[in-house]
């Protein structure tokens, strides 16, 4: 519990996490509000309320990476490892704090977006959370934020430099996963198994078809079920984080 308290204090003693949380909430809820207010008059589906969750996800991943790279930048990680020589315990405590915080921000952004959509959409008859899929579309955002934060922590611990870690996260998520589809013959097959593409299947996959106009909605992604997609994304995040723990344990601070 002491390590958890220490990591919580270290995280909230700087301004960057506060700005990242505000930006994540502002982007997702704000853009969703604009979409809902300008919906075309047809019933707005639940998917429309969480369509912008990726904006917040990327910001929260940047926050998670900063949680560890900032310590390397200012040298405070050395004091931490001197106080707790096994090194693994403080890294796990940091992960617990950051992952739980990220999950809460994800839930706040998704339910905030859904609530504003309910208020602003001209026709909100399809926004009711009546099925398990509807709840997954909204509440599942918190799980994706948590897994994404764990992945970003692992990248940050491996790279140790803020610019490098943030660049890897954003370039891979925003550029590499899209560009890889242009590889002849095998690009589409590879893209289906890219982590962020698969994570989107968890949020958007298997929606209630009756609530979506014909030809709209997300395409089929890979062969995994929505929950299988989340398991795949979470497994990749956990694997990268475990690798980072091994590297942190063996490498000089």
Automatic annotation (TrEMBL):
Coiled coil: none
Taxonomy, superkingdom: Bacteria
Membrane as UniProt keyword: yes
Organism name: Saccharothrix carnea
Transmembrane segments: 18-39, 45-70, 91-117, 137-159, 166-186, 230-248
Keyword list, A-Z: Membrane, Transmembrane, Transmembrane helix
Name of the protein described by the UniProt record: ABC-2 type transport system permease protein
Keyword Repeat: no
